[in-house]
Amino acid sequence: GEEHYNCISALHKSMRGSDENASLYWLARMLEGGEDPLYVARRLVRFASEDIGLADPLALTQAVAAYQGCHFIGMPECEVILAQCVVYFARAPKSIEVYKAYGNVKECLRMHSGPLPPVPLHLRNAPTRLMKNLGYGKGYKYNPMYKEPVEQDYLPEELKGTDFFKERET
């Protein structure tokens, strides 16, 4: 029932708050109560990107490994895998930078009226002669061929200068 959601919320908030003791408690309460370990593991995969993000990019690898370990061996052996992951996450630095930036992109798309802007011609692939003749790919600078970063726009003209990583006005 509702306690299922209350416990996963408490686990998330304990890890987010860097409380490893409480994190282990809520994990054990769920697992000892019969919760599906794969459900917990899936939630940890989400937590790795949503709450830890780029502050520790290896958190996602840790979460996926925990999910796979739980899938391979099941309960009760996988409890220590989940416990390790939960403690790792509680101790990890946190960053919601990517989570917020992606939310800003979604808001931008939702708030756009009319058709979405077309992909700039220089960013389009030109697999046919006709597309090449229409200007697809013209002027594109292939970054690996340059020693220095190249000046090139990657957003549609209407969004030039938009920075989704900055706080958006509501």
UniProtKB/TrEMBL annotation:
Segments forming domain MgsA AAA+ ATPase C-terminal: 17-168
GO molecular function annotation: ATP binding; DNA binding; enzyme activator activity; single-stranded DNA helicase activity
GO biological process, one term: DNA-templated DNA replication
Keywords noted in UniProt: ATP-binding, Nucleotide-binding
Coiled-coil residue spans: none
InterPro entries, A to Z: AAA_ATPase_RarA/MGS1/WRNIP1, DNA_pol3_clamp-load_cplx_C, MgsA_C
GO cellular component: nucleus
Pfam families in alphabetical order: MgsA_C
UniProt-listed PANTHER family: ATPASE WRNIP1 (PTHR13779:SF7), WERNER HELICASE-INTERACTING PROTEIN 1 FAMILY MEMBER (PTHR13779)
Descriptive protein name: WRIP1 ATPase
Classification of source organism: Eukaryota, Metazoa, Chordata, Craniata, Vertebrata
